Amino acid sequence: MDALIHARGLVKRFDDFTAVDGIDIDVRRGEAFGFLGPNGAGKSSTMRMIGCVSPPTGGVLRILGLDPRRDGPAIRAKLGVCPQLDNLDIELTVRENLTTYARFFGIARRVARQRAAELLEFVQLTERADSKVEPLSGGMKRRLTIARALVNEPEMVLLDEPTTGLDPQARHLVWERLFRLKQQGVTLVLTTHYMDEAEQLCDRLVVMDGGKIVAAGSPRALIERYSTREVVELRFATGSQQAYAEKLAGLGERLEVLPDRILLYVADGDEAVAEVQRRSLDPAGVLVRRSSLEDVFLHLTGRTLVD
User: CA 261 to CA 143: how far, in whole Å?
Assistant: First the structure.
């Protein structure tokens, strides 16, 4: 399988708190692998162990075939890291952020300048090469952070919430760049709160909750296993949604009542809507959509906000 990340029974504890509770992971070379989960699920603690900045408490962990407890510097030299918050040097120009960072890896100045030029073209920032960082838009800063993570030509790139806070256009441009990286054989490991991002980018992913892996597989496989082909959203203008839910009993594989609507998880949305009408119900709004990874995520981890 040529696993670049191999974990068995991986544990991370902070005093009496267990952040990661005995998880098993294999990330294959050249794939995009995602960690999903609510706040406090253990995603960040796992990524920090993979990035060799936080030692495991227990279990087996191998990164690029090496032991992070013993070979941390050697592993970090082969990784690219894009943190959740941009930590660019605002006193330097866009180009200098790359060439200066390259020196930390012992890359010669001539090679660093050439590599910086190639990366700025890759993330579409060539025209801003001599600009200072501060006036750049959020999307530009994010693309520069990704370019900096690639300056050492890493075998694997760790991306923590790569598009958080970006507008839709900037998000899609980042997605395009990351997809091109995967096409070039770079292994991507990411965390994200955007379910559409996970569906777009990830070949496989795990859903974590309470420090454990509660589901694993490709986005499509998870949808097929934990949800239905389609979801019908019904909104009733008057009265309690719960009262209408009782009249919908037995319709679909699963029914979920929310404060403003009812969700029916069904194989055939149009047939379900026809059955709603046959039961003499008249919803104010009807939406039939395909089931998504977000449906799976909320089903597995719940809708309660975790701080």
Answer: 38
In terms of phi and psi (left: phi > 0; alpha: psi -120 to 50; beta: otherwise), the region of 22 is: left
User: DSSP character for 304?
Assistant: S
pLDDT, tens digit, for every residue of 35-74? Answer: 999 888 999 999 999 999 999 999 999 999 999 999 999 9
3-218 and 228-291 share one fold: no
Q: Where are the domains of the chain?
A: 3-218, 228-291
Q: Would you call 298 helix, strand, or coil by DSSP? A: helix
The C-alpha atoms of residue 85 and residue 79 are separated, in whole angstroms, by 18
Question: How far, in Å, CA of 272 to CA of 265, rounded?
Answer: 9
CATH number of 228-291: 3.30.70.980
Q: What three-state secondary structure class fits 212?
A: strand
Residue ranges of alpha helices (H) inside the chain are: 43-50, 68-76, 94-103, 109-122, 138-149, 168-183, 195-201, 219-226, 241-247, 269-278, 293-301
For 81-97, b/e burial (b = at least 16 CB within 10 A) is: bbeeebebeeeebbbbb
- Measured from the Cβ of residue 121, the count of other Cβ atoms closer than 10 Å reads 12
Which region, left, alpha or beta, applies to residue 62 given φ > 0 means left and ψ of -120 to 50 means alpha?
A: beta
Say if domain 3-218 classifies as CATH 3.40.50.300. yes
pTM for the predicted model, two decimal places: 0.89
